[in-house]
Amino acid sequence: MATRLVAAAAVLMFFTVVPEVAATKWTVGGGKFWNNNVNYTVWAQGKHFYLGDWLYFVYDRNQMDVLEVNKTDYEKCNSDHPLRNWTRGAGRDVVPLNETRHYYIISGKGFCYGGLKLAIRVENPPPPPSASPIKDKSSAPRTIYGGQFVLPAVFTIGAIWDAFIWFW
Question: Residue 148: which residues within 8 A CB-CB, separation 6 or more?
């Protein structure tokens, strides 16, 4: 019985204390995907690409590809010497953003000239929000339960009650 109570309390503490951190999978182009006549500069505008995120390319696998190039080749739409070919053949390719730097991605076979080019800058995630400064408790309104302890206390009481019911 004590083991169940300790396990329930540990699970409760884990979910109430640990903040959720998740990478973002960006579908390039949104609902228009990786296609001609989409302005990917406009699509990327205002978005923040962080270390650990992913770029997801959806395109016609028989025509287009996903090539990472340097800045000069990006500007000239030169696909002759890509730094990396992310094309895997299914038309559903993922580029992991695992370095903080600029990424320059184009489609070869002349499609770059039709707008299939994307330049983004990957940055470190922002730091977690800092804790609020401690306020003077003498001027704060008094409460019976102390505010921030209510939810954990309710779950703890529920776990103890559950253990008590099982015991009897």
Answer: none
